[in-house]
């Protein structure tokens, strides 16, 4: 069919296509178009050794390979992004094709700001305890400012900045920011919609 032919062309002439029913399912479960899913499959396959590419849907790509993607290479949260989207049971942050699709879907322009802010919260929650506390905020600031000598904030500057963030965001004044507080702040920040890993 024409669609299969278009898919084959999109896959760079490779015969290893995603079955149409799987493609339809991925389209329903993500914010991605069929074309974007096929492109994602091609990119994911290319991260695998040649002999594993035929089985791209059933193998995992190591974190070291995921980090070679241009979108992640310069992202200060790249390690956290791998941790949050990986379903690996081994804690090695490797990704399956479905993990990879989830990541691309959340960072696509079509994802809702609610979904984006939910995942941003998880990425910023460095200790995975469901709240952003002072330690998480310190790490967040470190990631954003870079950890080089010249760019590092003094203790007093860091303390003042965290105090400002909490005053702005910690509605119930318990010293931490929960997901709904985070989403409330984000909803008032139109710039957040551009929090994106570029495609």
Automatic annotation (TrEMBL):
Xref: Gene3D superfamilies: EF-hand
GO molecular function: calcium ion binding; magnesium ion binding
Keyword vocabulary terms for this entry: Calcium, Magnesium, Metal-binding, Repeat
Keyword presence, Calcium: yes
SUPFAM superfamilies: EF-hand
EF-hand domain segment(s): 112-147, 157-192
Matches recorded under CDD domains: EFh
Listed SMART domains: EFh (SM00054)
Protein's recorded name: CIB1 protein
